[in-house]
Specification:
- This is Integrase catalytic domain-containing protein.
- GO terms for molecular function: nucleic acid binding.
- Pfam families: Integrase_H2C2.
- It comes from Araneus ventricosus (Orbweaver spider).
- With 304 residues, this protein is an alpha/beta fold.
- The protein has two domains: 116 residues, Endonuclease III, domain 1 (Orthogonal Bundle); 117 residues, Nucleotidyltransferase, domain 5 (2-Layer Sandwich), CATH 3.30.420.10.
- Helix content is 42%, strand content 14%.
- The chain is built from 13 helices and ten strands.
- Strands 5, 6, 7, 8, 9 and 10 form a six-stranded mixed β-sheet that branches. A two-stranded antiparallel ribbon has the order 1-2. Strands 3-4 form a two-stranded parallel sheet.
- α2 packs across α3, α6 crosses α8 and α11 packs across α12.
């Protein structure tokens, strides 16, 4: 036992190194080192059986050995604090907790969980369980561990481990400076007809059955968030103008158009600017469209 403990101790002191790349099981590397050391002691260093795959019995024995090493570092003084409320017993020299479910048909590890005191390897077990559960919270991770193990002050230990999870900290972090919401623009809150203030944009390309590439033009009402879709097979100005004509024929002409800074949208604006809008308004009573373009390389501008 002392020889195996000396083998594991240097690793226990460096458990933070490479923790993110920890793989197969919570003590996969420790199992393997313990099994290979037992093989070398029992079979000799030159035995061909040292290269064979690990059996289930060997892995189980290595896990029990590692648990005994962890429990040997839990002082009797700390154990005495729980004797009045928790009943301990030993099985195969492994300390376990006797629960009130002994008459049930639950698994043996659930009825009598193994005691695992706070330890660097135990913290790696918690981190692995947390990662296996897709970065679940403290309660879910602790409930999963309690199906096999009993960790003294487990909630505090699990919480400390989860606070160091880089992935969880990334998604739960808050901005240093509080974000003050910006008031909505006038064109988004005025009471106007549907699609009178319209936002136009292009979706990602799609591929038709014949291999031809096509795009979807999205027309969105800035006030009521209604959506109208048009299909175009080209990104040219003419193709977009045809899609816009079809949109106007169905939904009516818009008075304000917000668009991206794409070259096709700019070409449409230049083409429409060459028209004699005054003559069109006088003869057809059609209102001139007011164009607004976002800042270049900032498609999110405007909050649409």
């Amino acid at each position: 036992m002392e020889q195996l403990k000396n083998t594991i101790s240097p690793t226990m002191n460096n458990t933070n190194k490479g923790e993110e790349s920890f793989g197969e099981t919570w003590v996969a590397g420790r199992y393997r080192s313990l099994v290979m050391q037992n093989r070398s002691i029992n079979l000799g260093a030159n035995s061909y059986k040292l290269t064979k795959e690990l059996s289930y019995e060997e892995i189980q024995k290595a896990e029990e050995t590692l648990i005994r090493i962890i429990q040997s570092e839990w002082s009797s003084d700390k154990r005495e604090k729980y004797t009045q409320t928790i009943q301990f017993y030993e099985e195969n020299k492994i300390l376990k907790v006797r629960s009130r479910l002994i008459l049930g048909q639950d698994p043996e590890n659930f009825v009598g969980p193994t005691v695992l005191a706070d330890n660097p390897i135990v913290r790696r077990l918690i981190a692995y369980a947390h990662k296996t559960l897709h970065h679940a919270g403290v309660q879910t991770t602790l409930s999963h561990l309690r199906e096999r193990f009993w960790i003294p002050r487990g909630r505090r230990v699990v919480k400390e481990v989860l606070q160091k999870c880089v992935t969880c900290r990334r998604y739960t972090s808050k901005p240093v400076v509080p974000v003050i919401p910006v008031p909505l623009s006038v064109d988004r809150i005025n009471r106007v007809a549907a699609f009178e203030v319209t936002v136009a944009d292009l979706a990602n390309p799609i591929y038709l059955k014949g291999g031809e590439k096509a795009w979807i033009v999205i027309f969105m009402c800035a006030v009521y968030r209604a959506i109208h879709l048009e299909l175009v097979t080209s990104l040219s100005t003419e193709a977009f103008m045809q899609a816009m004509r079809r949109f106007f024929a169905i939904k009516g002409r818009s008075s304000i158009m917000y668009m991206d800074n794409g070259t096709n949208f700019l070409g449409t604006s230049r083409a429409l600017s060459n028209l004699n809008w005054q003559e069109i308004i006088d003869e057809c009573a059609i209102q001139k469209i007011k164009w607004h373009f976002n800042i270049p390389a900032a498609p999110w501008y405007g909050g649409w």
